[in-house]
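Instructor's aside before we start: the two examples that follow are unrelated to each other. I chose them only because their records fit on one page, so don't look for a connection. First example below.
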Amino acid sequence: MARIKRGVSAHKKHKKIKKLTKGYIHSRRASIKKGREAVLKAGKYSYIHRKKKKSDFRRLWIVKINAALSKHKINYSTFISQLKTKKIDIDRKILAELAEKEPKVFDDIVKEAKK
């Protein structure tokens, strides 16, 4: 029976790890074993933070809306509930953008919600 040499496939795997660890420092880049660990951990963190990014942005939008509402003497939760009762369907992302870039339009929306 013929002997199977694994040098080619091992070299391919190592090359792949080396490519993924580009930019890492010390043994994480030099060593295949440490590099593989680093790549696996980096992949895990990037997966988790792709999910977490959505809640982080929502939090940021809420802070921006709340800051813009402070001059109208109304708090965030009251404003959102008034929007829902008036059936004004504008999501938080758009409200935050309006509050930051178009304050006059945002003021009109607040006045409409207060009516």
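Example two begins here.
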Amino acid sequence: MKHHAKGGLVYSTETGRMCPACGQPVAQCTCRRDSSLPAADGVVRVSRETRGRGGKAVTVITGLALDSLALGQLGKQLRTACGTGGTVKGGTIELQGDQRDAVIGMLRKQGWNVKAAGG
């Protein structure tokens, strides 16, 4: 086990990473859940980007007020439904290819207020 310079446990082989503030495993941390939600206006925006990607289209979903765990699960559902790859970065979900229509339909079925953004 490694100990932090201030004396707190950083990593445990039983539970993985530990929260430095409350000392609980990161998955069970209660001190960061409230502050980790991004500010959102209630509208999920789905756009297509090609800038900086070698001309290849990427579908970007922003405006989801979810914590990182729930965002990762939603990203996996969308990747599976679209049959494509993708990632979750910085509070956004990125899917390979132009998947806007499929993503908008799925998110509306789940009850999200969805808007197509960009060109």
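The chain has two helices and eight strands.
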